[in-house]
């Protein structure tokens, strides 16, 4: 049975009208999203679109060598699988659960059908997609021009925006893969933030102690992304 209150923890689903709920609500399935689960692989057809509620999903680009880097992070503000309703069906990236939690999933054909109705939900999905593209482009610029410390701060802030709470549970290896650096580099950067009193860092767990201090320490990239999300999506989705 569909858990309505749980499903509406996702901001896009919460924006559905009563008519839209009547049309697609009972097709939504609650799913557990364990840490490290791969939701889709590069070049493989997607069976579902995922709407995280308490989980965070990382979109990674994986090189032929196996090295990877995060290009976007998606949580309760969005949907994983925009390629489905944009007509691509596949994508060269990989979707991996960054922080374990729950989500709702919708069959690929169902979200295509809903998008093709050209109604309010389609327009909301398109605005979200533009915001997601802005995050991807800003991430690429940040990874090229800013220090690892600043990148880590940006990543922490974006991740916190996707969660209810101030704690992330994940492996050092996954963090390193997402930031595209060695595990030792992530550890050193995290320990510097801990020494500054901004976070508490233990193996597999990061607790943000001073969000304002992290905001002051990061580059302009976080603010650019945040402004775009706030501009493109209704005020209720930015909360």
Task: Explain how this protein is built.
It is a single chain. This protein is of the alpha+beta class. The protein folds into 2 domains: 4-117, Jelly Rolls; 145-227, Orthogonal Bundle (Arc Repressor Mutant, subunit A). Helices cover 46% and strands 21% of the residues. It has 11 helices and 10 strands. The protein has helices spanning 4-7, 11-14, 18-24, 82-86, 108-116, 120-145, 148-161, 172-179, 183-195, 211-217, 221-232, and strands spanning 29-33, 38-40, 48-52, 56-62, 68-74, 94-99, 101-107, 167-169, 199-202, 205-208. Strands 2-6-4-5 form a 4-stranded antiparallel sheet. α6 (120-145) runs antiparallel to α11 and α8 packs across α9 (183-195). The model has no long low-confidence stretch (mean pLDDT 86). This is cAMP-binding domain of CRP or a regulatory subunit of cAMP-dependent protein kinases. Residues 12-130 form the Cyclic nucleotide-binding domain. It comes from Giesbergeria anulus.
